[in-house]
Design brief:
Length: 267
């Protein structure tokens, strides 16, 4: 791994768009439209939380690898501009988070992927290299369709601490990079009801084990964040302490998704 690193830390801000005229999936939701509380919580992330995260990650020289709903490019272009200004990487994450690939007719999947990739390219001038499905959902057709759209790596599978190559037929491959269900503020805060300090403790314990194992074989530590959660004022400082701890160690590579995917392709 780069510069003999024991652990590559990759931070994935999930920057998502939820239309006010659609049901927002969340615990305790009424299923009625408009879901003002659910929408407002997420809109706070796009108005305030994401800029707290940008400030925090920049302090440690961490370039975020953004799972971006492409509708953000239309509705919140200032977020895209801020990410580009700090050289963050943007990967495809469907058009909006309420439409998932395994919930639409088969005929629509290709169009969703193409529109997502092309919208991000128009907004940034660069075609995204990576993909994280909304809800990490795929169909049997997804990987070949992503490859056709020019995607080079996916992060949906969450099944390893190291990157690897996935065969998708006809001799073609996609890199698969680590992502996490559990080192994920959405699961920690909404499913496990962790406190901010408990989530920070999870991150530190994961780092300690991977750093120890990295003596013999390097590992990847993915951290999945959502601006409406970790960007809240009462949670941001706990994340700050966890990142300070990790970045205080030697042989830690602050990597982006495409950098890790390049390492995988060279294996």
């Amino acid at each position: 791994m780069k510069n003999g690193a024991k652990v590559a830390v990759c931070v994935f801000p999930n920057i998502e768009f939820f239309p006010l005229n659609m049901v927002i999936p969340r615990a305790g939701a009424s299923g009625k439209i408009p879901d003002v509380p659910g929408w407002g919580m997420r809109d706070y992330g796009n108005r305030i939380g994401v800029f707290r995260l940008i400030e925090l990650l920049n302090r440690y020289g961490i370039r975020g690898t953004v799972a971006l709903n492409s509708d953000i490019c239309t509705h919140h272009p200032q977020i895209v501009e801020a990410c580009l200004a700090h050289k963050w990487e943007l990967m495809g994450h469907n058009e909006t988070n309420v439409t998932r690939l395994n919930e639409v007719p088969e005929s629509e999947e290709d169009g969703i992927i193409v529109r997502t990739v092309e919208a991000i390219e128009r907004a940034t001038g660069e075609r995204p290299k990576g993909w994280l499905g909304a809800g990490l959902q795929e169909t049997w057709r997804t990987l070949p369709l992503l490859h056709k759209a020019g995607i080079e790596y996916v992060a949906d599978w969450c099944n390893d601490d190291q990157p690897y190559n996935m065969s998708i037929g006809d001799g073609e491959k996609l890199a698969c990079i680590p992502y996490s269900f559990e080192l994920n503020d959405k699961m920690a805060y909404e499913a496990y009801t962790c406190t901010p300090d408990e989530f920070a403790g999870m991150l530190r314990r994961q780092f300690d084990v991977l750093y120890r194992e990295g003596e013999t074989q390097a590992r990847v530590l993915p951290i999945a964040l959502h601006p409406y959660l970790s960007g809240a004022a009462h949670r941001i400082d706990a994340l700050d302490r966890a990142l300070e701890y990790m970045c205080g160690h030697e042989k830690v590579w602050l990597a982006t998704g495409s950098e890790i995917a390049t390492f995988a392709r060279d294996l």
